[in-house]
């Protein structure tokens, strides 16, 4: 019995408060969020049918039912697409015999040729496949062989580098991991990573249980470096075509800014 769809529905249902969808507050609840019958009512389907979906006993919901449930759960476009992907999983070759993932030679050469710009390539599971010296100088965790999810949740030095937005950053990282792996939550390598982090980090365990899905492509990183001080850097995450979810991550500063001068100083050091 495939329970991936049911796990997602249950997690998202527990995040929706009755008042968010116009339902009266009927007092104390045993569990947070909407009851199954409330969600079924909002979606216009029977409680029994919704229960079968959440328990994995119905594997073929219609597009209309999925759309109605997405509206009831107030899912955005990306979360709705993830819901449909869970309900319509496509056959993928087994990952059990996969070789160690690498960055393509051309991408590796490109990243290492950037002497002024911190950049690295990460796999779909956030393993660093190649990092240039500027990236490692910016943050020692950006080093080939490291896993950025483990670094974020298990290495206090990474948290200490961020001046602000840490909670948003790690929540986005977990949601980004779910976006990259999609419905393939039974991938052995993913199971190993999630299992390890769930045992060692309560924070990761809580965020993973939310089932948030969000692709992060760009934004700001507000750092403090032990040698050059505060850095306000933009980060871009660019998909590497022809790969299974690899991303090229690049940091850059506004031209002429103090952060640009600090990056130049970091390179000199």
UniProtKB/TrEMBL annotation:
Name of the protein: Helix-turn-helix transcriptional regulator
SUPFAM superfamilies per record: lambda repressor-like DNA-binding domains
Organism: Kutzneria chonburiensis
Pfam family, one: HTH_31
Cross-referenced InterPro entries: Cro/C1-type_HTH, Lambda_DNA-bd_dom_sf, MLTR_LBD
Limits of the HTH cro/C1-type domain: 33-80
């Amino acid at each position: 019995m495939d329970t991936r769809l049911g796990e997602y529905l249950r997690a998202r249902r527990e995040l929706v408060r009755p008042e968010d969808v116009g339902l009266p507050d009927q007092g104390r609840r045993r569990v947070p969020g909407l009851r199954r019958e409330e969600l079924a009512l909002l979606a216009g389907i029977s409680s029994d049918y919704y229960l079968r979906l959440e328990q994995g006993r119905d594997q073929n919901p219609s597009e209309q039912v999925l759309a109605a449930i997405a509206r009831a759960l107030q899912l955005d476009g990306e979360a709705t697409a993830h819901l449909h992907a869970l309900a319509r999983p496509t056959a993928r070759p087994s990952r059990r015999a996969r070789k160690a993932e690498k960055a393509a030679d051309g991408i590796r050469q490109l990243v290492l040729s950037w002497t002024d710009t911190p950049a690295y390539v990460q796999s779909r599971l956030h393993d660093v496949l190649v990092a240039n010296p500027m990236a490692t100088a910016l943050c020692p965790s950006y080093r080939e062989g490291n896993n950025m999810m483990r670094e974020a949740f298990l290495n206090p030095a990474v948290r200490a580098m961020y001046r602000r937005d840490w909670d948003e950053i790690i929540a986005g990282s977990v949601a980004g991991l779910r976006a990259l792996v999609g419905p393939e939550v039974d991938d052995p390598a993913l199971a190993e990573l999630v299992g390890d982090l769930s045992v060692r980090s309560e924070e990761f365990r809580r965020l993973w249980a939310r089932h948030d899905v969000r692709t992060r492509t760009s934004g700001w990183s507000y750092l403090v470096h032990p040698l050059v001080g505060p850095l306000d850097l933009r980060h871009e995450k660019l998909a590497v075509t022809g790969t299974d979810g690899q991303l090229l991550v690049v940091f850059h500063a506004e031209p002429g800014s103090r952060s640009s001068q600090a990056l130049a100083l970091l390179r000199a050091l």
